[in-house]
Amino acid sequence: MGSAAELAAAAFVMLGFPCLMLAALIPSAYAFAAVAAVTYLADHYLHRKGSYLVNRLSKVRAGLSIRFLIRQLLLILLLARMSLSDNLVFYGAIACFIAFYGLQAPHGALITLIRNRRRMPVATRNIDLKSRIRIPDAPPQRLLHRSAEKMLHLDLFAVVGLLAAALTDSSVAGFAGIALTVGLGSLYVLVLMPYVRGRKTPPKADDVLAAMDDWLAAYKPETVLYFSGSKDSAYQVNMWLETMEQLDSRPLIILRERVILNNLAPTTVPVICVPGGVHLMNLDLSTVRVALYAANVGKNIHMLRVPTMKHVFIGHGDSDKLASVNPYSKAYDEVWTAGRAGRDRYAIADVGVRDEDIVEVGRPQLAPILTWQGVPAGRIPTVLYAPTWEGWDGNPGNTSIVLAGENIVKKLVKADPPVRVLYKPHPFTGTVSKAAGAAHARITALIEKAAAARAADSAFTGDAAALEQARTELARIEARLTELAGAGGEKGDEAEATRDGVADVARHEEIARLRTAWNDAYWRSAPAYEHRVITGAEPRLYDCFNVSDAMVSDISSVVSDFIASGKPYAVTDSAELGAEEFKRQNTAVRAATILTNTAAGLGDLLDAVRDPAGDPLAEDRKELKRYLLGPDEPKSIDQFNTAVADLALKSEARNVGQEARAGAEDGTAELTGVLPGQRGASAGETDGVSAV
Prior knowledge:
By secondary structure, this protein is an alpha/beta fold. It contains 27 helices and 14 strands. An 8-stranded mixed beta sheet has the order 1-4-3-2-5-6-7-8. Strand 3, helix 13 (about 260) and strand 4 form a beta-alpha-beta unit. Helix 4 (about 65-80) packs parallel to helix 8. It is globular and about 100 Å long. The two termini are about 40 Å apart.
């Protein structure tokens, strides 16, 4: 359902038309004008908000064009009821609205044609197509954005003018309004026409694809990250961007959906979005030796069919979920996991993935997580509470926030000796369960109250000058980041973004440096003892890991990632399975302090933070970290690069072997007189299987 305001606007629209009819029949020009104004404003509000109710109105045959047409017909009825049917302005109104609707067809056709022609077969980022083909500027967005609504609203001039004519017995205003509506509508159509002919039209699809192949031949990509998915899955490819930037080989990212390209995080890696399967299969990817896949989706087949490269499933995070042992994975040449746990997971699942095809490469994404060195001298310990959200299924074991959250936070803020609490809830918290939303609000209030009490406590003091200096620095960094974000500019449309979308490496690197500086200034801008509620994208979760000495969380990837720090952590058994069963079912909690919904066991976690030497789970955490994430040395990115290089050698060896075999068969055919077409399929052919 829409918001209350959207529902009210839709009600005004639907109820307004019967009122318009009533005003026309009475007749009352003033009432008609007032109700017409309400319907115009309500309609505009729904479109400006992008409300789904706009589409629902179309489903019940009350679409945008119909609403405007009915309002105009009712205006004609009003004029007739006011005895103006013999007046020339009455006939002018009829002719105006007929002509105005006659303009809708060429206007709609031009808009559709412009959009279709400017949608090229590929969209790119960080690829120089500008020097290879001419891509003209996009039409001004004011011409294309909500174009149908803008065109239809040009009838306002005629409507206002005709109402003025009805009220004043003067036809001048009516004819003036008619002239403006028809004139501006015609001008709108004329302004669009140059964008469908001549130099303002983008190149044809064949020219774009030829330019793309020319760039590929010059760049010679060696390692491809291939991804297909919905808008909500963009995070799965974003998590690999930094790793791709650190590859020793030449990287390329291939996306299949435009919506993913629009939600791709900034990167310096060349990106190609190829929605069409035929276009993808016709691209020259002959230099690629390794293809990496972050998700198991049907469109992977368009790349998996290419035999000249080796295919690897890298996934988007290791966990005990069924998705981590999908039988689809046996379609790949290799499956890369973080550590031994991933290998064992496939062995237990017995889904056809051979042990020799599994390679342990660590998790390069976890490199920013620092290893714990104990609580810094002179600072009280910091405990991060990072519960996951309630999920879609209502399972009480999904999150601790409802049953245990308040108990956990109450004990933490009252801990003696004191600790600092950082509360970073999942961004989806409360979206499904009202109870979770209410619990989040109460926890936030608890922490804010405790923070206020601590700020007023003379036992807690900070360096006021240092705090002010950090806040000033934070403001300066934020201003510069805002300036750089604006410097990036919004491209007119996809074609223009493809033409101009080459990353400014210096700007990209400066933003990365500033984000690091922002994070440092953010933590220094408040006393190290201050409880904080952290929402939004910044600071990032891993930044919270690095300033914390321990964490309380739930079963989720948050726990698996936190294990990389080596710090003590606790997980809440919200479903009350019991500690042993809870550990048996969840590998990531085998080195955790297990909490009940009453927060029993929290003292053990705090003891481990205050006295690391007496921590009974310290060795268990080290062992679990190695099992889940692999060894610390060599670094994960080095392991990943080595795996890419080794597989590229296998791919090259396969290709050389196939070429040698094909050459031998050609020689035999010449000696025996057998036609080349009589031999089996060679490298790159499909062995009689149609391309899909």
